[in-house]
Amino acid sequence: MTIQEIEQQIIEEFANFDEWLDKYAYLIDLGKECPVIEEKDKTEKNLIQGCQSRVWLSCEMRDGRLYFRADSDAVITRGIITLLIRALDGQAPKDILNADLEFINAIGLREHLSPTRSNGLTAMVKQMKMYALAYEMKQK
Asked: Which residues contact 10 (CB under 8 A, 6 or more apart)?
């Protein structure tokens, strides 16, 4: 599936909920599905700077595609990173770099987060795109 197709799925899933409390509960449930980073990779190098809670993110390339693993010490944040991984996991670096991630605004995520969590979301997206850029440069 393309990033845009996955984003559309996410938008449709969140459209099933009228209240933001239900959407938060769904985010928490999604966090339980997070492809968890191994303990040995919970290092300072993999810690995302700019997040209120602690978020670790690792990335590896296989067959020209990037695969992410993450964890967080906050359940909502784990749900957010799980959504981002769902959209970008298994995609080519150039596709990740070109992704607008419109689903974030379409589901109202950014506007319903506290300013510090919103900054954390931005930091997570930035880190995933930095991995994509680094791997894209290695391929050239």
From this structure: 83, 86, 87, 103, 107
3-state secondary structure of 14: helix
**How many C-alpha atoms does 48 have within 13 Å on its Cβ side?**
32
Judged on CB neighbours under 10 Å (0-12, 13-18, 19+), 139 is: exposed
Walk along the chain (140 residues) and give the pLDDT tens digit of each residue: 999 999 999 999 999 999 999 999 999 999 998 888 989 999 999 999 887 789 999 999 999 999 999 999 999 999 999 999 999 999 999 999 999 999 999 999 988 888 888 899 999 999 999 999 999 988 76
pTM for the full model? 0.93
Which residues are known to be catalytic? 51
